[in-house]
Amino acid sequence: MPKPILVAITGASGAIYGVEALRLLRELGRPGHLILSQAGARTLSLETGLDRERATALAEKAYDPEDVGAAPASGSFATAGMLVAPCTIKTLSAITNSYASGLIARAADVHLKERRPLVLMVRETPLHKGHLELMARAADLGAFIMPPVPALYHRPASIEEMARHTAARALALLGVEHGFYQPWSGAPLDEE
């Protein structure tokens, strides 16, 4: 049985990215574990109409975001990696400064200290220098910084398709092999 991928959904806009990651993991038969923050649950409901119960049903296991004694808070709980999708600046700051006041920041800190892959889909715009410095510091600590910037070359037909493509790219950073998108192979130049 493969190790689980831990997916955290925080309160930034873009909860669909975490949802699509969980759906992709389920399609692959890979265990997806979820930490859904209180603010993440609110944003999820506003943006997608999903409530906490329906979101947690997408995961093999879900954890209380305030339970810093849950399994993901320990380095002895082996995962294949963690995806924070989306990642608020508040969560980025907590992770970068090792301020593990809740399970999301603690689990991310565990991934960094154990040298396991951590992907942060930082969702904020515009960015000021403090945001950029936090992202640079997180990258220096070993995190992948992957703002959910949608690729358009595959001409997505829906928001779900666009989010699915981005979530699939994030899972690829965690070493999850799949065929959910066609990698860019170059395009012939138009002749004039």
Would you write up a description of this structure?
This protein has seven helices and six strands; from the N terminus they run E-H-E-H-H-E-E-H-H-E-H-E-H. The chain has 192 residues and is an alpha/beta fold. A six-stranded parallel beta sheet has the order 3-2-1-4-5-6, sandwiched between helices. The longest helix has 15 residues, at 159-173.
Elements, N to C (H/E): EHEHHEEHHEHEH
Q: Considering DSSP H and I runs of 4 or more, what fraction of the residues is helical?
A: 40-55%
**Overall CATH class:** Alpha Beta
Mean pLDDT: 94
Tell the overall outline: globular
| CATH architectural designation | 3-Layer(aba) Sandwich
CATH topology heading: Rossmann fold
The number of helical segments is: 7
CATH superfamily: Flavin prenyltransferase-like
Strand order of the largest sheet: 3-2-1-4-5-6
Ends apart, CA distance between termini: 54 Å
- Count of the separate structural domains: 1
Uncertain runs are none
Query: Structural class of the secondary elements?
Result: alpha/beta
Count the strands?
A: 6
Largest sheet: 6 strands, parallel
Alpha-carbon Rg, integer: 16 Å
Proportion of residues in extended strands? 5-15%
Can you tag this structure with a few keywords?
alpha/beta, six-stranded parallel β-sheet, 40% helix, globular
